[in-house]
Amino acid sequence: MTAILFVLAASLVFGIGVWGLLIAEHLLRKLLALNVMSSSVFIIMLVVSGGGNDGPDPVAQALILTGIVIAVAATAFALALMISIYRVTGRATISEDDDDGR
Question: Which CATH architecture fits 2-89?
């Protein structure tokens, strides 16, 4: 029963991340939405790895930890890209009605 609640909560958090990704125009908010989505995936992976009678699977925990490290590195890279986009364009938003002709 507890696993089902965790999966439902993580699915709700993933949906919130998708909604934030689709609605937000600011690049930083899009990145935060992606991080929310990835954290919900890690929660689902943790629940699926389970904790049977023998305890949780150490391989699954290692994969989750590796995924978190990769997510942090990807976030740092995305922040660096956002800074360079801001320096070039002077704005940190993406909207389809802005057409600079570039």
Answer: Orthogonal Bundle (1.10)
